[in-house]
Design the sequence.
């Protein structure tokens, strides 16, 4: 039986004869159902209609699709010296993607910021030898294809390797996570933020939203908590969720300025 994929958010559901009655992720207030109504595809159909988009993005291999699909994020291959980590995920998985990643050493782990990018994560794990998928326990309810390869972690931090760790960062989702890679940006440190910290269009700041498409902000209390979690980390670069949406240098300074700017905007006249 097929595993249906939501056309709007790109998440893959477990095997079933017919499409699900709806997508809980798109029905959530942080996302939305397509104006034309719920629609479904499969990985096989996606491979026929889309091609891999593989390109370097500020020193890391970015993985996307042409044309863009669903939310349009790109994944990143993080070349940790202990083994490659796939950060975030996309729905498309084809031979071009598999061969490129295997040619660069395969995968040690998959880590995903939040459910909008879970996509076909189980299919990815299978393709690379059943590598573990690390998701925060708080986001378990959003997983639409439960699988033994998913490892749910709890608490505020999970060390993946001596050079990479996941941090729970609230705001967009209670189980939202970022990846801190100490060897990134020429050993100055890098954050992989998805849109838990959304790199702004001018690439000079990050911002924080409960819902981006429906424009629901987070509270000042939450932003201050984000500052407490992320502020002490050492990093010079932030990789956002989309192609070239990167603060390439002085990102720690930009992060602290972003916290101040957000609070001032909410508190202002």
Sequence:
């Amino acid at each position: 039986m097929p595993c249906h994929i939501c056309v709007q958010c790109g998440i893959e559901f477990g095997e079933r004869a017919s499409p699900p009655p709806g997508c809980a992720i798109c029905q959530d207030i942080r996302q939305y159902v397509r104006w034309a109504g719920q629609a479904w595809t499969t990985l096989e159909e996606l491979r026929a209609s889309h091609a891999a988009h593989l390109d370097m993005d500020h020193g890391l291999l970015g993985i996307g699709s042409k044309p863009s699909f669903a939310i349009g994020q790109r994944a990143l291959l993080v070349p940790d010296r202990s083994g490659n980590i796939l950060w975030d995920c996309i729905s498309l998985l084809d031979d071009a993607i598999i061969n490129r990643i295997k040619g660069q050493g395969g995968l040690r782990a998959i880590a995903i910021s939040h459910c909008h990018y879970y996509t076909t994560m189980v299919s990815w794990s299978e393709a690379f030898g059943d590598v573990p998928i690390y998701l925060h326990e708080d986001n378990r309810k959003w997983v639409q294809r439960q699988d033994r390869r998913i490892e749910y972690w709890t608490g505020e931090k999970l060390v993946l390797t001596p050079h990479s760790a996941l941090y729970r960062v609230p705001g967009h989702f209670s189980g939202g996570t970022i990846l801190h890679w100490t060897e990134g940006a020429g050993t100055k440190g890098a954050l992989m933020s998805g849109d838990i910290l959304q790199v702004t269009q001018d690439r000079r700041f990050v911002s924080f939203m409960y819902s981006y498409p429906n424009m629901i902000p987070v509270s000042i209390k939450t932003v201050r908590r984000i500052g407490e979690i992320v502020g002490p980390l050492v990093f010079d670069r932030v990789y956002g969720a989309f192609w070239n949406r990167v603060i390439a240098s002085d990102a720690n300074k930009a992060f602290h300025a972003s916290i101040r700017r957000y609070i001032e905007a909410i508190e202002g006249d």
About this structure: The first strand starts at residue 3 and ends at 6. The chain has one domain: 3-267.
